[in-house]
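[09:14] KT: can someone run the structure on this one? pasting the chain below
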Amino acid sequence: MNKRKVIPSLRSLADQERATAKKARASWQMFTIMAEFIEATEYLSEIRPAISIYGSARLKPESPYYQLTIEIAQKFSDAGFAVISGGGPGIMEAANRGAYEAGGKSIGLSIELPHEQFANPYISPELSFNFHYFFMRKLWFAQIAKALIVFPGGFGTLDELWEMMTLSQTGKMPKHTLILIYGRKYWNEVLNLKNMVRWGTISQADFDNLQYADSVDEAFDKIRRGLERYHMEAEPFLQAY
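[09:31] RB: done, structure tokens below
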């Protein structure tokens, strides 16, 4: 006769006070997530049209990528777009600086981190939002942007890039969102997605979703064509250029 081993449940192992405390913490976390989403909606939902710019927090003002980020942010601001960044230093600061100096909307979606993250001085005061949850922050980057521009960056930039690619591949993100990889030399050394196509782990169509640009004008033109292709509501952009 087989004897089934009885494994005590967590509930039976924990005393009532401990179980209640765990439930309270879980409930509180759920409410903080809901509160952060609602507050972000109030701040950001009416910002249209906009672009999101990703990139390294470690690149200094003397970096050529920093200067290129300023230029492209200025050009999109002149076309009537709000510019969204992570609100910190490096490429994020350059994006906000370009929008700020062009007199456009400069949005900073910051995150609470133990290092490398502090709000740069070029964010419009009423358009700064500090997130606690990474997933919530990434949601809003894509939620209100008409295009995503990715400059050279580290783990955080790659994390955001892969998430956007996955959402696009699985149809969880609108097809009109264009992912633009900026800085061909850097990305060719960091990524080799053609091998993934060769091994059959992604399709050629997935690879083709990555648009490269090596100048401000090339990036601008590719995003404009992406807007036209997907019939997006970007009248100020299309009329001006």
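[09:33] KT: thanks! The chain has a mean pLDDT of 84.
[09:34] RB: yep, looked fine to me
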